[in-house]
Inverse folding.
């Protein structure tokens, strides 16, 4: 690494560290003011609260803190360099603006990688872990894994499932009722006291089965078996994805990516006949997760021309510029993402539009820098 790169990195990383630390401290302080009654009602201990913020802070980092801190630190550092004519001296020595920007793009790439890894491996389970922390002092062990009175319908198999109780940890079902429309139009209904998933099929206990023909008003007399094997596409993973995705509201999906890439692809694989509205939501979420890491690179592109302008500028000009850029970016992001979730924009355009606009504007402004 050249001496110039080390110098530029040092001048960037110092304000970047202050920005990251400041944003996190302010967020925790203000959030704690509003959440303290909730924590007290949940009988949380001090270390429970610390664990809660450790679990929930990565979401704030991905969505706001990392790109905003990078933008603010870049504008501060480059404006400071420009104020003392350091950039002019570097360029006069034959170092081009793009070469000067290499350390900044390296930091943006590292931040983008962090955004991807956090969004893919940390955030998908963060909400469940946060809920567990809030409920750990009030709910008895084993109750949290139990989901009761669940209804699911699979368009692909034309099957309607009614689960009296579903254990998300062991995949055990109690009081199962299953109705399936067969190819000849008849309806096969099944009741089981208990069901366990083993070796790619369900083991049903105390089973009662009957079939209702299209010409009949009432089902035929059924048969009863102590144990029966059922092989169907609906697996515990299918039920888990249904539980997670069915609770997603369009208003929440419009705020930004919620699920990981793997979760979305698995859901689409398990639900090949997803309706158009839900598919638009999922594909917009997918593209949003893919576009999120590139936000940090777009931030570098838009920050360079604002901070590298010739002449002496007050460092607070960079701070003010970052505020306006952030507001404009996040407003455009919310609007385009909402249009994608609503089906008014193609998912790929809805998710990538803020980065395209931000990066494109940065390239145009960089071309005009003298």
């Amino acid at each position: 690494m050249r001496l110039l790169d080390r110098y530029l990195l040092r001048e960037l990383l110092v304000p970047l560290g202050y920005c990251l630390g400041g944003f996190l401290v302010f967020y925790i302080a203000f959030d704690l003011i509003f959440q303290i009654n909730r924590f007290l009602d949940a009988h949380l201990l001090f270390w429970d609260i610390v664990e809660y913020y450790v679990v929930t802070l990565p979401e704030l980092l991905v969505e706001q803190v990392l790109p905003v801190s990078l933008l603010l630190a870049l504008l501060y550092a480059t404006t400071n360099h420009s104020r003392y004519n350091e950039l002019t001296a570097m360029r006069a020595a034959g170092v081009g603006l793009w070469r000067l920007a290499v350390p900044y793009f390296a930091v943006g790439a590292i931040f983008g990688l962090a955004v991807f890894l956090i969004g893919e491996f940390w955030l998908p389970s963060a909400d469940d872990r946060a809920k567990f922390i809030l409920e750990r002092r009030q709910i008895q062990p084993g109750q949290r894994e139990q989901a009761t009175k669940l209804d699911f319908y699979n368009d692909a198999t034309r099957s309607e499932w009614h689960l009296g109780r579903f254990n998300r940890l062991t995949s055990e079902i109690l009081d199962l009722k299953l109705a399936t429309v067969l190819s000849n139009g008849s309806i096969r209904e099944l009741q089981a006291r208990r069901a366990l998933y083993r070796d790619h099929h369900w083991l049903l206990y105390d089973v009662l089965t009957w079939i209702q023909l299209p010409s009949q008003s009432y089902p035929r007399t059924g048969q009863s078996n102590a144990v029966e094997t059922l092989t169907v596409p609906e697996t515990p993973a299918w039920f888990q994805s249904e539980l997670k995705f069915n609770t997603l509201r369009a208003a929440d999906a419009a705020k930004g990516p919620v699920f990981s890439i793997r979760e979305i692809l698995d859901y689409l694989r398990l639900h090949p006949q997803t309706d158009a509205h839900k598919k638009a939501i999922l594909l917009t979420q997918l593209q949003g997760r893919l576009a999120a890491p590139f936000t940090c690179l777009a931030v570098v592109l838009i920050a360079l021309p604002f901070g590298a302008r010739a002449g002496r500028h007050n460092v607070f000009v960079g701070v003010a510029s970052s505020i306006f850029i952030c507001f404009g970016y996040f407003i455009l992001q919310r609007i385009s993402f909402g249009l994608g979730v609503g089906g008014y924009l193609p998912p790929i355009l809805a998710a990538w539009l803020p980065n395209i606009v931000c990066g494109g504007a940065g390239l145009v402004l960089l071309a005009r820098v003298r």
In short: The CA atoms of residues 333 and 354 lie 6 Å apart. The longest strand covers residues 187-198. The mean pLDDT is 83. Strands lie at 146-154, 159-167, 173-181, 187-198, 201-212, 223-230.
